Amino acid sequence: MAKERRKAVLELLQRPANARCADCGAPDPDWASYTLGVFICLSCSGIHRNIPQVSKVKSVRLDTWDDAQVEFMTSRGNHVARAAFESKVPPFYYRPSASDCQLLREQWIRAKYERQEFTYPERQEPYSAGYREGFLWKRGRDNGQFLSRKFVLTEREGALKYFNRSDAKEPKAIMKIEHLNATFQPAKIGHPHGLQVTYLKDNSTRNIFVYHEDGKEMVDWFNALRAARFHYLQVAFPGASDADLVPKLSRNYLQEGYMEKTGPKQTEGFRKRWFTMDDRRLMYFKDPLDAFARGEVFIGSRESGYTVLDGLPPSTQGHHWPHGITIVTPERRFLLACETESEQRAWMEAFRKVVDRPMLPQEYAVEAHFKHKP
């Protein structure tokens, strides 16, 4: 009988909706919450274990199942559970994938099943009200210390502001929603709730690094920023559908890591720098947590005269790392070197994805600005 019950549960995995984790979309889930009726991956099952009052998990293949549990799983499954627990997810709310950080996946699971935010929309107020204020730990630009700073997000003014003192009348910085991006960077920042916020200041990228000890608080800030971006874009592009706008709300970097670079004359030695590929902007920093980039390079499309070549010109000298990349732009060549072949392949793939993509009309304006930078 036990074998038959296990076989019956395994057969449920053949249903299309059950072929991927109900929470992060990872393929071939082999765990299940027998109190919620969903099939989940090993990683998400660990998060479910932390909310035992809501979810109890079993291995589909290794644990024993009783008749009532099999019957419940048969009547539910991922498709039915999604209709119950995700019926009112706001379009701007970030739905994490298997590659996202632990914090995003944990808070998505807790929001769905524990707090039931997508069943009762009034519980979404912390990130959907259009205004949010609170204190976050922010890394100092010069000394690298994290200090508590007051942040205010106001959709009416289209800005995120922060203040050096809670009683300060004027903000230290005003970040326009139009040019703002946020991405979780726990490893880089050294905190599991670390968020990197970037914005344009004088058309150059500025980074700030923040965290909050409460994971829910940090994810609520992240989704409040996405909501503000969503509402801004709805006004800016009145004919656009939600499906068009949602990919523009926040973006993860295409690639990050150390490479060596040399200067425009290619006569000075190569220096190790931290590179970040953010859409068509390739930025380099002395340190990953620098507030400002040492330089930015616009990477256009093949039709506009941009190409990426494997290796360096034969005459190149001074690089310590052996795996070269040459970026050709209409103005000059950029010579880069990676430490390992796998890093070189990853960077080449990221560059080629961008170069192979036709440029949008607004990207020509960005390119023109780069050409006229002092």
Automatic annotation (TrEMBL):
The record's listing under PROSITE patterns reads:
ARFGAP, PH_DOMAIN
Name the CDD domains on file: ArfGap_ADAP1, PH1_ADAP, PH2_ADAP
Residue ranges constituting the PH domain according to the UniProt record: 129-230, 252-356
Task: Tell me which GO cellular component terms the UniProt record holds.
Answer: cytoplasm; plasma membrane
SMART domains linked = ArfGap, PH
Keywords, ordered alphabetically: Cytoplasm, GTPase activation, Metal-binding, Repeat, Zinc, Zinc-finger
Q: Where does the Arf-GAP domain lie?
A: 7-126
Would you say which domain of life the source belongs to? Eukaryota
* InterPro entries listed in its UniProt record: Arf-GAP_dual-PH_domain, ARFGAP/RecO, ArfGAP_dom, ArfGAP_dom_sf, PH-like_dom_sf, PH1_ADAP, PH2_ADAP, PH_domain
**Where is the protein situated, by its record's location annotation?**
Cytoplasm
Gene Ontology MF terms in the entry: GTPase activator activity; phosphatidylinositol bisphosphate binding; phosphatidylinositol-3,4,5-trisphosphate binding; zinc ion binding
Q: Where is the signal peptide?
A: none
Q: What is its main location?
A: cytoplasm
What PANTHER family does the entry give? ARF-GAP WITH DUAL PH DOMAIN-CONTAINING PROTEIN 1 (PTHR46021:SF5), ARF-GAP WITH DUAL PH DOMAIN-CONTAINING PROTEIN 1-LIKE PROTEIN (PTHR46021)
What is the protein's given name?
Arf-GAP with dual PH domain-containing protein 1 isoform X3
Annotated organism of origin: Tursiops truncatus (Atlantic bottle-nosed dolphin)
Query: What's the gene?
Result: ADAP1
